[in-house]
Specification:
The protein is an alpha/beta fold. The protein has helices at residues 60-63, 76-92, 114-117, 130-138, 150-160, 178-188, 202-208, 224-232, 265-277, 282-308, 320-329, 361-366, 380-386, 388-392, and strands at residues 3-4, 11-12, 14-22, 38-45, 52-54, 101-105, 122-126, 143-144, 163-169, 189-200, 220-221, 236-244, 250-257, 313-316, 339-341, 358-360, 371-374, 396-399, 405-406. The relative contact order is 0.12.
Length: 407
């Protein structure tokens, strides 16, 4: 069944179907099992504008609300990353402004904007999840508990004037009404203002078969081709691109009003690279589906072998991405005893769909398992440094990106 592309309305069909899927961050209590929400997780590729997108997405209020279970500030490496991001903005884009104004969409607990607040720079965070917005406000970060769109952009300009920089990290890919976002940014930015956003990069997803980057919140998986197509309709052009290692491979896109800033040579180079990688061809995504199926079958077989041998397997990090993996692969509590996580709001709850218990990190340390299935593989380096005692005790890691293996 075809559906219209969210960018250009060209009819598109799914290239991969992950089946019945719950809300990725919907960790729940036992009494909530009978009322758990499910939808069909399938992704399509538009051959016209080259956007990879979900064909179905839950309502935004089901994903972002007062019980949202992700706080950016829990990761030390992300705090360092966002401090660097902020410094880049300060030094290279707003240093010459007399009274700079910075706006961030999806500002979470203020992990990025705190770097501007500390320098008394005018700022505004837009955060739709009430619980994390509250944390930001308590930290002294000026925050609106709303969803950003064209209408809100007009209100912000009326109340604050235009912005020098509009920032977003791991949030633009969440929003299906991308035209309202792009139109809002065009209204909000000063003539020389910049939009800087980063999200998981399609090239990395394809190369690593990191299919767990596809879940309910990620309605888009961006490439430079698709970003240029979507934002170009609103008078914005990509003037630079900066690859990032975060989230298993991301891309930072820097956009400005068309003709307002010189375009970096990196833009043309990445466009050429994407053509070489096949990111504009449907055949690439057919192969990706086959790679997903192979990864799924190999991971399930490995876990079943561990169970047959009487080995204990515990999940490490109850991430949104883990929901795609556990449900697509059919990983149930008989294969993974529990998932260890440091986020208190998840403790005593169960993973979405397959209902694996989520327990405090202390339970992992109290009795190390034989194997830890690393759902937080994008933080592997940080986690490996922290878990040297687990390795010394004979523990091994099970990973599934870029391929299923034991380390």
């Amino acid at each position: 069944m075809s559906k219209p592309c969210l960018v250009c309305e060209n009819p598109i069909e799914a290239f991969v179907d992950y089946g019945r899927m719950p809300i990725a961050n919907g960790f729940l209590k036992k009494e909530d099992f009978p009322n758990e929400y499910f939808f069909r997780l399938h992704a399509g590729f538009c051959p016209k504008c080259h956007m990879v997108q979900l064909l179905e997405q839950p309502a935004r209020e089901q994903m972002f609300h007062e019980n949202y279970a992700f706080f950016s500030g829990t990761s030390k490496s992300m705090a360092v990353h966002f401090a660097g991001f902020a410094e880049h903005v300060l030094k290279d884009f707003i240093a010459d402004s007399k009274d700079p104004f910075v706006v961030e969409m999806g500002s979470n607990d203020g992990i990025m904007l705190q770097n501007f607040a500390a320098k008394n720079i005018r700022h505004l965070g837009i955060e739709p999840s009430a619980n994390v917005a509250k944390v930001a406000v308590e930290r002294g970060i000026r925050t609106l508990n709303e969803f950003f769109d064209e209408k809100l952009a007009r209100r912000i300009v009326a109340e604050n004037g235009q912005a020098d920089a509009f920032l977003a990290a791991n949030v633009t890919c969440h929003i299906p009404y991308i035209h309202s976002i792009a139109a809002g940014v065009a209204i909000l930015l000063k003539p020389k203002g910049v939009m800087m956003f980063e999200d998981p990069y399609l090239g990395d997803v394809i190369e690593k078969t990191s299919y767990d980057q596809i879940y309910d919140e990620h309605v888009f998986v961006f490439s430079l081709h698709s970003v240029a197509a979507a934002f170009g309709r609103h008078g914005l052009e990509v003037v630079d691109v900066e690859p990032q290692t975060t989230h298993g491979g991301s891309m930072r896109y820097i956009l400005a009003h068309k003709g307002a800033r010189p375009v970096s040579e990196r833009v043309g180079a990445l466009l050429a690279k994407e053509l070489a990688l096949g990111l504009t061809k449907a055949a690439t995504f057919d192969q990706f589906r086959r790679n997903c199926e192979k990864s799924r079958d190999e991971l399930k077989a490995l876990l079943e072998r561990c169970k047959k041998e009487g080995k204990r397997v515990v999940g490490y990090a109850a991430t949104s991405k883990s929901t795609t993996v556990t449900n697509y692969c059919g990983i149930t509590p008989d294969l993974v005893e529990f998932i260890s996580d440091t986020t208190p709001i998840k403790h005593g709850k169960f993973s979405p769909g397959v209902h694996i218990p989520v327990k405090p990190y202390e339970d992992f340390k109290a009795r190390y398992p034989d194997y830890a299935l690393l759902f937080g593989w994008n933080h592997a380096e940080e986690i490996a440094a922290k878990e040297q005692d687990f390795r010394k005790a004979g523990g091994k890691w099970i990973l599934y990106v870029p391929k299923v293996h034991v380390a």
